[in-house]
Amino acid sequence: MEYIDYNMKYKKEIRKQRGDIMYKLMPEKYHLVKPLIRDCSAELSVFTVLNGLMLGDVFVDCQVKPSSALIRTSETVALVGSPHNAEFNAYIKENVLGYWENFMLDTSDWEAKIPEFHRNSFIRRYTRRHLICHKLAYTNYREDLKSSFILEQIEPEKLAAGNLKNTDIVMKWVGNWGSFDNFRKNAVGFIIRNEDTIASWSVTDCVLGEKAAIGIVTDMDFRRMGFAAIVSAANADYWFQNGKHELDWLCVAVNKGSQATAKKLGFAL
Question: Would the pTM of this model clear 0.85, i.e. be above it?
Answer without folding.
Answer: no
